[in-house]
Write a structure and sequence with these properties.
Helix content is 25%, strand content 22%. It is of the alpha+beta class. It has a single domain, classed as HIT-like (HIT family, subunit A, 2-Layer Sandwich), CATH 3.30.428. Strands 1-2-3-5-4 form a 5-stranded antiparallel beta sheet, with helices on one face. It is globular and about 40 Å long. The model has no long low-confidence stretch (mean pLDDT 97). The structure holds adenosine monophosphate (AMP).
Length: 114
Amino acid sequence: MQDCIFCKIVNGEIPSEKIYEDDMVLSFKDIEPAAPAHVLIIPKKHISSLNAVTEEDSKIIAHVFIIAKKIAKELGIDKDGYRVVSNCGENGGQSVPHVHFHLLGGRLLKWPPG
Ligand code: AMP
């Protein structure tokens, strides 16, 4: 997608602090961290939100969680715990229309979120 900021990060047109990359997903540090550990995991394929995910994307979405677990371990937040969340649409607080998963940890996270 031409105007998608996360597609531009995938293509290297916009810099990011890369954490992990493979053929399906890219992970990088969130530019406005909401916790001591805050990275985004995104499919390389442009999917606008969770609403646009299809059966065809099942492998990619499952892979996101396998990679989230791996990154959590590498960041040293796996033992104390962490959160993986995807905001969808206006009420969900989604600001970038390319589906992404926040991996947050390094502090006690409140529930329910605000
Ligand atoms: P959301 O509000 O759930 O759509 O999450 C979008 C996230 O992307 C926010 O936490 C932003 O801080 C983050 N973000 C936006 N632009 C960038 C960027 N260029 N590099 C890293 N993170 C970004």
